[in-house]
Amino acid sequence: MTQQRLDRDSFVPMYYQLQQALISDMDEGVHRPGDRLPSESELCDSYGVSRTVVRQALRELEISGRIVRRKGQGSFVTPPKTSERLVQTLTGLHEDVTSRGGTMRSDVRRLERVPATPEVAAELAIAPGDPVIVLDRLRFVDEIPWVVVVTYLPYALCPGLLEEDLTHQSLYALLEDKYGIEISWGRRQVEAVPAPAAVGQALDIRRGSPVLLLSSTSYAPDGRPVEYFVASHRGDLSRFEVRLERRRGVPRNPLLTVQSAGT
């Protein structure tokens, strides 16, 4: 391999320079998701550095989630994590993915009218047993199973939704453009949990692997609840960005409360 140049006179540590060089190669498509990186010895020869430097660089890349290291096989580039914004704008996963040039597809596993359970009724401010639409989707980002999401909406708001094809459509865009339902704000809870067997099977991960469990209720401008969902995101592929603001005179609260993006 042709030897690459690192700045040996720089105050920046050699392992960090190598780490950034490899990240640059990943971002430019030299090493694509799923590709195996050159071996430790090949990286040593290519960059003229010690094995200690190479191992530290690879360790940092693994910690940051850019690569996965498999014993006896080598280091492999991971798919980029999808960021969902929790505050900046009230967008859904469909908008977040397509805005970065990715593709979004949903396998609609259930779409029907059902009576609201007490939990769902409480979130949507309706009576238990009132009709709701349940929408169960396995969602794929760039054809990788990414999230299982079950959404509930009051049936009276959009009965025609039962006839829609939601394979490639954004639910939020459909609600706004066709049914005139404006979603103004929301509240969301996020917690890390082990994947149940059914979720693990759907997301192609092992049972017990970490998933990010989101529960969210979205509201119209007048404060009326219009949507409640529970979503299980793959923990190895998803991250959430949160903007925090400090306001003078606001009492401290041990709970972090943010407005949320939808699905």
TrEMBL record:
The keyword Zinc does not apply. Transmembrane segments: none annotated. Keywords: DNA-binding, Transcription, Transcription regulation. InterPro entries: Bact_HTH_transcr_reg, Chorismate_lyase_/UTRA_dom_sf, Tscrpt_reg_HTH_GntR, UTRA, WH-like_DNA-bd_sf, WH_DNA-bd_sf. Residues 12-80 form the HTH gntR-type domain. It holds the Pfam family UTRA. PANTHER family: MANNOSYL-D-GLYCERATE TRANSPORT/METABOLISM SYSTEM REPRESSOR MNGR-RELATED (PTHR44846), MANNOSYL-D-GLYCERATE TRANSPORT_METABOLISM SYSTEM REPRESSOR MNGR-RELATED (PTHR44846:SF1). This is GntR family transcriptional regulator. The lineage of its organism: Bacteria, Bacillati, Actinomycetota, Actinomycetes, Streptosporangiales.
